[in-house]
Design brief:
Helix 2 (about 155-165) crosses helix 3 (about 180-190). Helices cover about 35% and strands about 15% of the residues. The chain has helices at about 120-130, 155-165, 180-190, 205-215, 215-220, 225-230, 235-255, 265-275, 280-295, 300-305, 330, 355, 360-370, and strands spanning about 85-90, 95-100, 105-110, 130-135, 170-175, 195-200, 315-320, 340-345. It has 13 helices and eight strands. The chain has an eight-stranded mixed beta sheet with strand order 1-2-4-3-5-6-7-8, sandwiched between helices.
């Protein structure tokens, strides 16, 4: 199993219009290239609408039970299932959500290179267990708005807490994978009153991530794709080249060897088609560009200092033992930033996507912990 290095993101295929410094300009709601806002006008919305009437779900895409889903009318994002799709407004943008069930809110946050559909198994499991399960598309991905700015972790965390408020809930249990986990850590520090519990999969605490990428050669090499994202133009072109073939490559190479059924061709096809929605590749990369380019900037230094504040909500930290993108030792030290019950769970033989590689085991661990009134440290 190998992780593509930064050279994998070579200049292949065309990309949309470009803005200052060679960055692609996100498209507006009508699909045309949008212009940057004036200074100080953050969060002006604009998005391609993937739910175009008459569009279809890819043939053979997986339903929650693993069987092929019927063709629907929601395009590559609003995939049919027992859940309900709708949009909510928060933090100056519009966010697509899929929700199922009634009870305490559990908000599910996807990572790269995926979108809300990565949580299809957990949506049904959580709803059956008596929770209101909601999976949202992060800013710039899936059915959510693609704005010109706003991809720093502080603003993305405000997107998440804003969605909690827009759903009419006093708080939520946040469940985040990969980039969604990074933002879940951030939201728990920035808005602790809105986070009832925290569950993070395949992502260390932001300060732990920073130190590992800068001081651990093995982690820096495993995360070389992030260094490759720093170049203008090239990563966007590579992600969408050949119908987003690189998305399938990344998912295959980051998955563990114990789960030969994941990913299958139908699942990969769903993620590839979602990445091909105009401007998605650019918006998916922007948070990683901020994470690296801000390391020596005042905003990055201030964020890192702010994340010294401890997490004071019960935290469950899940990780695949064979994750090639985020090494186990990089994630394992995150408990030092939690001043609350903290539980570390390592899934033996799984890779970067434990919630999809072993959905039953992951869901059982998650639900058991969410229902535990006094989780042990």
């Amino acid at each position: 199993m190998t992780v593509p290095d930064s050279s994998a993101f070579g200049p292949v295929g065309p990309v949309g219009p470009t803005g200052p410094e060679g960055q692609a300009v996100p498209a507006g709601r009508d699909g045309r290239a949008g212009s940057n806002d004036r200074a100080g006008q953050k969060d002006r919305t604009g998005s391609d609408n993937p739910a175009t009437p008459g569009s279809t779900v890819p043939e053979g895409s997986n339903a929650p039970g693993g069987s092929p889903a019927p063709v629907g009318s929601g395009g590559p994002v609003r995939i049919d299932g027992p859940w309900t799709h709708r949009d909510v407004a928060a933090n100056g943008a519009r966010f697509h959500i899929a929700e199922l069930g009634e009870g305490p809110l559990v908000l599910l946050l996807h990572g790269f290179p995926q979108f809300w559909w990565t949580w299809r198994h957990q949506l049904t499991a959580l709803a059956d267990a008596g929770f209101r399960a909601v999976a949202m598309d992060l800013r710039g991905v899936g059915g959510s708005d693609r704005t010109p700015r706003g991809y720093d972790p502080a603003n993305l965390a405000l997107d998440i807490t804003g969605v909690i408020r827009s759903l009419g809930e006093p708080d939520a249990a946040l469940v985040g994978h990969d980039m969604g986990g990074y933002l879940a850590w951030t939201a728990a520090v920035m808005r602790p009153k809105l986070v009832r519990r925290l569950v993070v999969s395949s992502m260390p605490h932001p300060r732990r991530w920073r130190s590992s990428m800068l001081s651990d050669f093995a982690q820096s090499r495993a995360g070389s794709y992030i260094w490759g994202f720093q170049r203008p133009w090239v990563p966007e072109r590579q992600l969408v080249a050949d119908d987003a073939a690189l998305v399938g490559q990344l998912i295959h190479e980051w998955a563990g060897p114990r789960t030969p059924d994941f990913p299958d061709d139908a699942t990969v096809d769903v993620y590839r088609r979602a990445m091909c929605i105009p401007s998605t590749a650019h918006c998916s990369i922007e948070p990683y560009r901020w994470m690296v380019r801000s390391l020596a900037r005042p905003d990055g230094i201030q964020f890192n200092r702010r994340m010294k504040l401890p997490v004071r909500v019960p935290t469950l930290h899940l990780h695949g033992s064979l994750d090639p993108a985020i090494r186990t030792r990089s994630a394992a030290g995150s408990g030092e930033y939690v001043e609350a019950p903290y539980r570390w769970r390592l899934f033996d033989g799984l890779g970067h996507f434990p919630h999809e590689e072993d959905p039953a085991g992951f869901s059982a661990e998650l639900i058991s912990w969410l229902k535990d009134p006094e989780p042990d440290r």
